[in-house]
């Protein structure tokens, strides 16, 4: 039987064996929510890069560039890290380059060892779960966290995915069980569950409460982003 495991922060990824695993990267506030939203709204592809310099290089080649550090847009780039910025019809068919504090770094760390890298968010939870049921591989959810530390919202997402897959995957590791139990206790009001979390406080100081509420909505889209040749595209 396949196994579902969790890596609570990219700094712990070296402890996980990925050669028979799909890595699902989750950065709920807000990178992976942006990726799912953008592809759902017609963006052609998103190229995640770890550094601002790589993103600027692609911008100079004609990509629309999104860069975020410490939850703020980096000066000189086209897009910030709000999912609402990815809904504009001018982005239909666009190729976007993206770098973020945690999410794109996590993708960069996972892509060399994983069988596949996919993108998870509450927004595409059901579609992602249904697809993973059809795959023959184990799954490791890589929580982007915040600068090497675990965070609440990515862990809750892991728990939600574990709950959705518990009949098809073994949940053997304590981290996965912790995430599942946390989600079971919080599922009826996710917004309240994260209300005093560090990243919510960080985002609220920037006045973007609407992003928080949006990113905690479940199953808005049936998009399953997958990394192909260094670029995220929709499997659908």
From TrEMBL:
The record lists the catalysed reaction(s) as: (2R)-O-phospho-3-sulfolactate + H2O = (2R)-3-sulfolactate + phosphate
Keyword Membrane attributed: no
Sorted keywords for this record are: Hydrolase, Magnesium
Tell me where on the tree of life, at the top rank, the source sits: Bacteria
Q: Name one Pfam family in it.
A: 2-ph_phosp
Its Enzyme Commission number(s) read 3.1.3.71
According to the UniProt entry, its GO molecular function terms are:
2-phosphosulfolactate phosphatase activity; magnesium ion binding; sulfopyruvate decarboxylase activity
Cofactor needs: Mg(2+)
Cite the HAMAP family for this sequence. ComB
> What family does this belong to?
Belongs to the ComB family.
Full protein name: Probable 2-phosphosulfolactate phosphatase
Give the source species.
Answer: Dyadobacter fermentans (strain ATCC 700827 / DSM 18053 / CIP 107007 / KCTC 52180 / NS114)
- Gene name per UniProt: comB
